Amino acid sequence: MDSVADLPPGGAATLIRPDPMLPRPFRVHRVHQDTRDTYTLELEPTDGAPLAWLPGQFTMLHAFGVGEAPISISGDPSRPDRIEHTIRNVGSVTAALVAAGPGTVLGVRGPFGTGWDVDTGRGGDVVVVAGGIGLAPLRPAILELIAHRADFDRVVLLYGARTPEDILFTDDLRAWAERDGIIVEVTVDNGQHAWRGRVGLVTQLVTRAGFDAARALALVCGPEVMMRYAAQALSDRGVRPERLRLSMERNMKCGVGLCGHCQLRELFLCVDGPVLGYDRLAPLMSRAEL
Amino acid sequence: MTQEFDGVGSVDAGPIPGPNPESNPPRALDTAGLQALIDALVTRGYTVIGPTVNGGAIANAPIRTIDDLPRGWGDEQDAAHYRLRRRDDEAFFGFAAGAQSAKPVFFPTDELLWRGRRAREEFRGEFTVQPESDGGGSEGTAGPGPYALLGVRSCDLHAIAIHDRVLTGRVHADAHYAARREDAFIISVSCTDPAGTCFCVSMGTGPRPEGGPRVRFDLSLTELLDGGVHRFVVEVGSERGADVLSDISALPAPIDDLAAADGVATSAAGRMGRTLDTDGLKELLYTSVDSPRWDDVASRCLACTNCTMVCPTCFCTTVHDVSDLTGEVAERHRVWDSCFDSDFSYIHGGTVRDSTKSRYRQWMTHKLGSWIDQFGTSGCVGCGRCITWCPAAIDITAEAAALRGVPQSARPY
Amino acid sequence: MQTIAQYLPEHPFFAGLDAATTNLLAGCASNIHVRADELLFREGTPADHFYLLRHGRIAIEVRTPGPPMVLDTVEDGDVVGWSWVVPPYLWTFDGRASIDTSAVAFDAACLRVKCLANPLLGYDLMMRFVRLMNQRLQSARVRLIDMYGGTNG
To answer: ipTM of the predicted structure?
Structure first.
């Protein structure tokens, strides 16, 4: 968007286009059910103009007559013709979004926020730590890493889910491990007898994983409790705080830094985040109710 | 402390070149001249909004004659206390901060953002969105613009400048606010009688309106009543102000009146009801997260949100999506919200700021502290409304002083 | 493959013990193998050993009316079993090999005798198990929050 400081004498209103509060119509092309409560929607713009976005960014997705929710983009950044959103059904808006069948038109505002900036990990190891639905905002970063695999040393994905039935993107996980040179370790909080894999906290995977912490870039996303423990574990291993990025979540009503809801002290998470370095976040995560 | 704006991304609702001091010296107006000024603005198509007496308080409303103004009224303000009182003169502006600032004019409590219509042929089909960013989508209580505001205090003038920065001076701008601000004409007044809750001097925001690159007025009045002659010194703050003034006859103000106007400002500055020490206040707030003082104020705070409603710089909003019974027409409204609201920080999994203590701490830390990191100035203009209108008599200046008195924690944060 | 006496000093669980002590402990130890799906220990039976996994994975399971629930897994390099420390020395859960597993098994009775005879050794060993139990308890407690799925996560 043009800088507001460059306004002509005609005034501000004439150049505030597009109004960041106006949604663009996108049609649902495909819906895939990932788990019992999580669905991935593939959207295409009704006017054909693709959305330019970066891994880690989110949009405000609008279900007509119901409302809006901030949802991270979970698709392949090299394929801008369709955008994917992986949505967990936790409320009235997300329920409406996951129920939107092919052909339904949804409103999209954005993309908003800061991205994972995977580029800065070139020449070293990259450790990705995901908890639950947190794997969805990380998926575009992983796909970007794979697209430029030779630029990075070890790439490790540590992923924790609630139960084996809640594991997302199982086909991708297999392909990434077998074909794309990613070390993939999965654990669940608890499992049934048929589960032969690990049971335990994803932070326990951090302690065991093989990577050069001093030169690593770490990307973390999941529930805040999980991110706090994971960041501490990574930090204890020697990952530098400014090379340790978290995607933070707060209540959002506008996505553009105007409604005030997403503030974490001086940070507006929709503009200064949601991806932020642990060097800035550590003191803000150390106290309750900030 | 003086308020400084950093120049990054700062706002203009259209550049207004400053007046030439030689050709625009301060003028004098009598009460008939004030009426003529209002008439001139109406003729030019402005809706003139000024203070009026309403419901036992001074409230802004559309005005047409000087008789609509609170002639002869003053006020008494203290924590949880507001009363109007009869003055022993006929001053039009002999009171301090009214119940509301200019905020609702440019930033209404309810603003229609867009209206959408779903195609009738398919239940889940296309919908089109009609933007309402022409400034006329919601009229609020002020009527259609453009607006001329009469009687804006210096504190509120600074608050308008702060809102300009917050709402139109960053990466994304609020189109509706910008539309209402465009072409707005501002006549500020110098305070003659500060109230018991005023502390603009501490915040560097008054009591006299000082025009500058960000804090602008078109005209500014200082009311004088000495010697039984009721008149105004009118300073010109913009080309537009000079232009409107040229519609009415206004002679240059006498030298004695200029001195009297200076005297009014000096006197008012010496009669502030409160003070706030802003030195190192942001760092103090950042390191006081665990202060027991927050528990103390939380035991009194009702989280009623009055302070945020009357604060001229608070800007938090939420959105309401409504549709008609057929589900084919939907509207999205932007409405005022408050960080004191219990759901303000709700995310799936819980509310981040659940306790009243955390919400009061958030409000005060933001207003006096993190606002500086975000926008380059304090968020407080010293108008005192939050103190006056708090039903629990909580005083932000007293809370700040109390925080200073409590030993700091050893940790840097 | 290394002998137990060669393996123990390199293992983090026994870090800091001198050669005489590790030999003493090795004297209570033997190598065992468990095939995938075989039980290593059963709930309610005497806890006569603790195990140091060399390769494989042990699932800590609890029997339910339906299929058993896996509460935790112990990976290669980790230690499993502290019921031998706490009277009445009975296993509280089932331990089943998820995959073929080889481990060093330490005889509990043998160790208890040695600890009684050498209280300093006993104290040292108990502190190592306290650390282990602390880690497992923290992990279990955080998972109780159910942060991925619950409404209070």
So the answer is: 0.91
